Amino acid sequence: MIAARVDGRRAVISKVVWSIVGWLVVFIFFFPVLWMWLESLKTEPQAASSPPTILFAPTLMEFQEVLSGDFPPFFINSAIASIGSTLLVLILGLPAAYALSIRPVKRTQDALFFFISTRFLPFAASLVPLYLLARDLHLLDNIFALVLIYTTINLPLGVWLLRSFLLEIPNDLFEAARVDGAGFFRELTRIVVPLIAPGIAATSLICLIFSWNEFFYAVNFTSSVAATAPIFLVGFISGRGLFYAKLAAAATLASLPVLLAGWIAQKQLIRGLTMGAVK
Amino acid sequence: MPAFIYVVLVTQIPFALTIYYSFFSWNLLKEGSFRFSGLDNYSRLITDESIRTAIFNTVLLTLSVIAFSVVIGLGVAMLLNSEVFGKGLMRTLMIAPFLIMPTAGALIWKDTLLNPLFGLLPYLLTPFGLSRVDWVNQFPMVTVVAVEVWRWTPFMMLIILAGLQSQNLEILEAAKVDGANAIQTFRRITLPLVRPFIELGALLGSLFVVQTFDSIFMLTYGGPGEDTTNLPFLLYLVAFQGFSIGQASAIGVVAVIITTVVATFALRTLFSIFQVEARR
Q1: In this structure, what are the phi and psi dihedrals at residue B24, rounded to the nearest 5 degrees?
Q2: What is the ipTM of this complex?
Q3: What is the pLDDT along chain B (280 residues), one digit of tens a residue?
Q4: How far is A179 from chain B (nearest CA, A)?
């Protein structure tokens, strides 16, 4: 009896201790994000004060300033580039993944290996020729070029992920459909798409994250008309002086879509990040 | 197979062109400077001081970021896997650094946390006599590594946590009954079980960290001097500030070779995990 009670108390104490340790670590990691939000709710003098202002009356002034200023076009460009490329990945990737998983083509394994390996080809490999090509086609500073580039970056990952979901569908289902006389297209839209809806969600999420946050191509291929949200933030490095509150507000807005999407779809996030290896 | 044709078209052909260009001397700003130069660009790579620095920085950055984020990520994952209050919320807050736009995260660190005049960290460190340390300029590599570790630890944590959660609880219980202490349980049971997940995280992570560009661009712009210039950043400087297409292509080829070595290991791990699963 007594031993059990001591054991129970020890368990509670250890739970409390580890909870405190855990929350401390989480707090440290989350703090920069929290600080970004706090700074964005300050006025400029409060944000650039020494010592730093901890207590203050929050204001949405800087958000209004950012939103009514030149930020929206950058945001819209980001949306076009990431949503456009994600849709293209799904349209091109779904049939490819389908072929690789259900209707075996010859040498599937080789095709797969090749496909996924292209994801790891560093951008260094193709940057220069793509840049020259875009220049000659007058696609520099054109959002369409970014859509195509992001599609390329994400397509191998997309095919791989979609395939890992397709493999989980029992083969009988397709055979039943084929017996019923369903054509390829019908099979795809009626059976495949509804069954792998979570897979499509995971794939879209990963594509959205990578293309929304992408910086290297954006900074080299766009200048003004087609510039995306991260490029807007570059302006704060120099030339805009000490606008810390405005910077924080812009950073908050630029990060918001991916942060929300990632938080909502945490399960899909893990599976997507590990390329379907971890469920 | 439209997807195949598309992938071949936009990845393989440009890469072939990169190799092709790397044998030429070509400056975009000089008309008609396009001429064959053999292995010049490559021999310059070997003799050039800045490319050696860049390779060294790339390796240093990648290894330290991966090492720190795996160790911390493992610790946090084990915390989140044990009996603690508010696990769900902890995990949610923990993954935020990974989701924040890298350019935004770097700026927040540089201007609002590390700024020697108005930043929070120098202020908090005042009692320790570190009040006016200009982290970004005095310790550039430490700063870049710290910001990248902040970003990649959640990634490692997520993968390792998933591994821990797939652990068989009965084995752990049995170990406890057998009188194994915490350290023994960790070394003999937990670690072997999550090892493939750690490997996967480290390899996938290093493929991304090798290409670090955003935070270097925002935090240090490769400087001071060349102290934080890694291969991707050097490529950017040579191609888009110096417009030396041939030289940049040669750097690109070197970067591809390095990444391919890492990627081969990564893919092997990935395939072996799938095979283990298929056997189940």
Answers
A1: -120, 155
A2: 0.83
A3: 566 666 666 666 666 666 666 666 666 655 555 656 566 666 676 667 778 888 888 888 888 898 899 999 999 998 888 888 888 898 899 999 999 999 888 888 888 888 777 778 877 877 777 667 777 778 888 889 999 999 999 999 998 888 888 766 667 677 777 777 777 777 777 777 788 888 888 888 888 888 888 888 888 887 787 788 888 888 888 877 777 777 777 777 777 777 777 767 766 766 666 665 555 4
A4: 25
Kindly state whether B21 is in contact with chain A, defined as any CB-CB distance less than 8 angstroms.
Answer: yes
Q: What is the percent of chain A where pLDDT is above 90?
A: 11
- Number of folded domains in chain B? 1
- Minimal Cβ distance to A25: which of B21, B76, B158: B76
Smallest CA-to-CA distance from B108 within A106, A235, A165, A36 is with: A36
Q: What is the mean pLDDT of residues A49-61?
A: 78
Domain ranges in chain A are 2-61, 66-273
Give per-residue pLDDT as tens, A112-155.
Answer: 666 666 666 666 667 777 787 888 787 788 888 889 888 888 88
A222: DSSP letter = -
Structural domain range at position B125: 2-279
Q: B11, B167, B206: which to substitute to probe chain A, counting the most A Cβ within 10 Å?
A: B11
Please judge whether A121 and B15 are an interchain contact, meaning their C-beta atoms are less than 8 angstroms apart.
yes
Residues 79-98 of A with CB under 8 A from B: 92-93, 95-96
CATH code of the domain containing B146: 1.10.3720.10
Q: Is the dihedral of CA A159, A160, A165, A171 positive or negative?
A: positive
DSSP letter assigned to residue B222: T
CB A126 within 8 A of CB A217: no
Q: What residues of A are in contact with residue B1 (Cβ under 8 Å)?
A: 95-96, 99, 105
Two tokens, residue A57: 């009356």
Q: How far is Cα A185 from Cα A176, in angstroms, rounded to an integer?
A: 15
> B29, B243 in Cβ contact below 8 A?
yes
Residues 6+ apart with CB under 8 A from A117: A156, B263, B267
Contact of A53 with chain B, judged by CB distance below 8 Å, is answered with no
> Apex CA A226: angle with CA A221 and CA A228, to 5°?
85
**Kind and range of the H or E element at A76?**
helix A71-101
User: Mind listing the pLDDT tens digit for each residue in A122-134?
Assistant: 666 677 777 878 8
Q: How many CB pairs under 8 A join A and B?
A: 278
The answer to whether B85 contacts chain A (CB < 8 Å) is: yes
Q: Please answer yes or no on whether B235 and A93 come within 8 Å at the CB atom.
A: no
Class of domain A66-273: mainly alpha
Which tokens hold the place of A32? 């920069």
Cβ distance A278 to B3 less than 8 Å, yes or no, reads: no
User: What is the identity of the amino acid at A83?
Assistant: I
